[in-house]
Amino acid sequence: MVTLEQLLASRDARAAFQRDLLEAYPACTLVCLTVQLPGPEKRNATSLAIGAAGLEALQRCFEGMTERFEVRDLETGYEAYFLVRMDALEAKRLCCRLEETHPLGRLMDIDVFDGTVPLSPLSRQSVGLAPRKCLLCNREARWCMRARTHGTEELLLKIGEMVAEYEKRL
């Protein structure tokens, strides 16, 4: 179980690591994969399956264009970083396509950074796409998350079903 303090510290450490990577590779676009998993348990078989699927998909997506990649398997969640030789908007388009078409893409959060300070990921709107939809209903995911429309157990059940279906296909 991860505490709120640990999650906040992890988010700050991730942001610092992202800044360091972009400073070390200023000509590259940074792609950062994290796993969307509600609740206090952020590292388990489900999150690792989603992370591994995302890593494999991103490796295929950026094959031949990756300057460096790194995986961090932390108690606070799975993280993968790719520094790619590609325009940031084109990388964002590819990542959004992956999020929309991969069987587990909806459970992946793939941020793309162009190095602009202050560090902020490109939005889906920057490539002409609408915000992501909720896993369980047709509202904007952000809206349901803020309103706590769905319980953690309900979301984890849906996520578990998605991962089990994906693993059956392997």
Terminal residue distance: 29 Å
What is the β-strand count?
4
Run of helices and strands: HEHEEHEHH
In the predicted model, the low-confidence regions spanning at least 5 consecutive residues are: none
CATH class: Alpha Beta
Which fold name corresponds to the CATH topology?
Answer: Alpha-Beta Plaits
Quaternary state of the chains: single chain
Largest sheet: 4 strands, antiparallel
CATH architecture: 2-Layer Sandwich
Structurally, the number of domains stands at 1
Specify the helix fraction band. 40-55%
What value does the average pLDDT take? Answer: 94
User: Strands of the biggest beta sheet: in what spatial order?
Assistant: 2-3-1-4
- Computed CA radius of gyration, to the nearest angstrom: 16 Å
Structural class given helices, strands, pairing?
alpha+beta
Total helices: the number is 5
Note the beta-strand portion. Answer: 15-25%
Overall form: globular
Explained architecture:
With 170 residues, the chain is an alpha+beta fold. It has one domain (4-129): Alpha-Beta Plaits (2-Layer Sandwich). The protein has helices at 4-24, 45-61, 88-101, 141-147, 152-169, and strands at residues 29-35, 66-74, 77-84, 108-113. It has a four-stranded antiparallel sheet with strand order 2-3-1-4, sandwiched between helices. A hairpin with a 2-residue loop joins strand 2 and strand 3. The longest helix is centred in the first third of the chain and has 21 residues, at 4-24. It is globular, with a radius of gyration of 16 Å. 29% of the residues are buried.
